[in-house]
Amino acid sequence: MLSIGEIARSTGVSRRMLRHWEQLGLIDPASVDASTGYRRYADSQVGRVRTVVHLRALGFGLERIADLLDPGLTEPRLVELLREREKQLVLAITEESARLVEVRSRLAALERGSDAVMNALQLVPLPELRLLAVRVTVRDETEIPEGAREVVAELRARLAPDAGDAEVVLLYDGTSDESIMVTAGTTATASARALEVVEVPAVAEGVSVTFDQPPVDVAAAWISLDAALRDRGLRTTGVHRQTTAPNAAVTLQAGVRPLR
Question: Which positions ≥6 away from 11 have C-beta within 8 Å?
Answer without folding.
Answer: 46, 49, 50, 53, 223
